[in-house]
Write a structure and sequence with these properties.
The protein contains 15 helices and 16 strands. The protein is elongated, with a radius of gyration of 28 Å. The site of magnesium ion has 2 residues, from loops.
Length: 433
């Protein structure tokens, strides 16, 4: 079939035959969050543009190039959320959640929107699992958050994922570092891209995150932040490393990680794989001790991460990880005539009351086509109802996986008999219950 209008570039549909992959990762991330005591928060899809400009930062790629913004009636400026932290923190402040004591731990699974060049693992609408941990400056919190992300990665069955960590210090150490970077890039000014020329003046650390090959090459020999950390930031980083060690979580120190958003302080981290090409950062996060003050005037330390669900699924597919099996039909009731069809409706209604997935013909097809359909939808059992079966009050129940049949009585007690047989099947054939 030809379509008049197709989906926008950089967006994805998830068709029913693929959706089990999403159900798998959504379950994994929610279970992990709950396991670590995080509660779900739900936030709007769009926010006042000012929220992202203030929090994500106006020297970042996201704000400079990637936001989908509209001017609504009366000049109000709105932006489709490019990430979740700003909205989640705004919502926590606005709803008084931060007056309820610390720490506050929230998570969300949301769509995000960025105007980027679409490619594998880089979309214009993508999905993030995000966690925010608010009200603690302790490195124990950084370690707990990293352990949560690692739990997701392990439960998903991913291998070959490296945890890279860095500290980008506090505003105090960063001032000295910025000065060193300015000096370094001043000699190489002519080669920087236009965006980075602007960054050189306003926020030179952003140059290290530039995706242009020339800027990345120039950044390779730039001074590293770890040489400029103040004593407090150094101690925080040392404690984090020690705690990760105690937890048995392996990491690499990667002074090149500065993270894409402006609000980060001290700890930054990424989980990176080389298995899905260039867009290999599956999860990125860190501490943002200054953000809440920027938004509310009150200083509260916090940290969080965002995990890209498309990249998580891509990596799972590449590595052959297991997804939860899609749930299929328990019983398909084929029918030979109108009387049997009416009976199938009644039997199915009874079965569904007990949570049994029962299906019957609603298209008006012949027996052969009905059985073909039963196979296609992966029905575990089937039976054929006709006048004989209705007269004798008995029917052959067919196990679709091995073709074996069992005669059972119709009418009262049918549901119970079927549930017994189904439970046995699940125990013996699929080994689950
Ligand atoms: P990148 O360097 O790949 O552009 P980023 O630093 O912009 O990533 P974050 O803002 O930290 O990404 O977002 C957290 C996570 O969300 C990323 O690690 C990635 O898994 C995912 N992500 C970010 N942008 C996209 C996108 N356009 N398409 C798909 N996933 C994305
Ligand atoms: Mg990006």
């Amino acid at each position: 079939m030809d379509l008049v209008v197709k989906r926008p570039k950089g967006t994805q549909d998830v068709v029913p035959s693929e959706v089990y992959k999403w159900h798998t990762v959504e379950k994994i991330v929610k279970d992990a969050a709950e396991l670590f005591g995080f509660k779900e928060i739900r936030i709007p899809t769009f926010e006042d543009t000012g929220l992202f400009v203030r929090s994500v930062g106006d020297t970042t790629d996201v704000v400079q190039k990637e936001m989908y913004s509209v001017t609504a009636k009366g000049d109000a400026q709105f932006t489709l959320r490019p990430e979740g932290t700003a909205g989640a923190i705004r919502a926590m402040i606005e709803n008084g959640v931060l007056n309820e004591g610390f720490p506050q731990k929230v998570y969300y699974v949301i769509s995000c929107f960025r105007h980027e060049k679409p490619q594998s693992g880089r979309l214009r609408e993508f999905h993030q699992f995000g966690c925010e941990l608010v009200g603690t400056a302790s490195p124990a919190a950084d370690a707990q958050l990293i352990a949560l992300a690692k739990n997701v990665i392990d439960t998903a069955g991913l291998k070959n994922i490296e945890l890279h960590i860095n500290s980008i210090g506090c505003p105090e150490c960063r001032a000295k570092y910025h000065a060193a970077l300015k000096e370094y890039f001043a000699d190489r000014k002519q080669q920087l891209c236009d965006t980075c020329l602007d960054r050189l003046e306003r926020n030179p650390m952003r140059i290290l995150d530039c995706k242009s090959p020339i800027c990345s090459e120039l950044s390779k020999n730039a001074p590293i932040i770890l040489d400029y950390l103040c004593d407090d930031c150094k101690e925080h980083f040392e404690k984090l490393k020690a705690t990760l060690g105690d937890m048995g979580i392996e990491y690499k120190i990667d002074p090149r990680i500065v993270r894409g958003l402006d609000y980060y302080t001290r700890t930054v981290f990424e989980f990176i794989t080389t298995d899905i090409g260039a867009q290999g950062t599956v999860c990125g996060g860190g501490r943002y001790d200054g953000l809440i003050e920027t938004l509310s005037g009150q200083s509260v330390p916090a940290l969080g991460f965002g995990m890209g669900l498309e990249r998580l699924i891509l990596t799972m597919e590449k590595q052959g990880c297991e997804f939860m099996k899609p749930d299929t039909c328990d019983i398909y009731i084929a029918t030979l005539d109108d009387e049997a069809a009416a009976e199938a409706v009644k039997i199915s209604a009874e079965l569904r009351k007990s949570g049994i997935k029962a299906e019957y013909d609603i298209v008006g097809r012949g027996l052969k086509a009905q059985m073909k359909y039963a196979n296609k939808i992966g029905a575990k059992f089937s039976m054929v109802l006709g006048s004989n079966e209705l007269e004798q009050h008995e029917v052959d129940l067919k196990n679709m996986s091995d073709g074996s049949t069992k005669r059972i009585t119709l009418g009262e007690g049918f549901c119970e008999s079927f549930i017994d047989i189904l439970c046995n099947y699940l125990l013996n054939i699929e080994g689950i219950m």
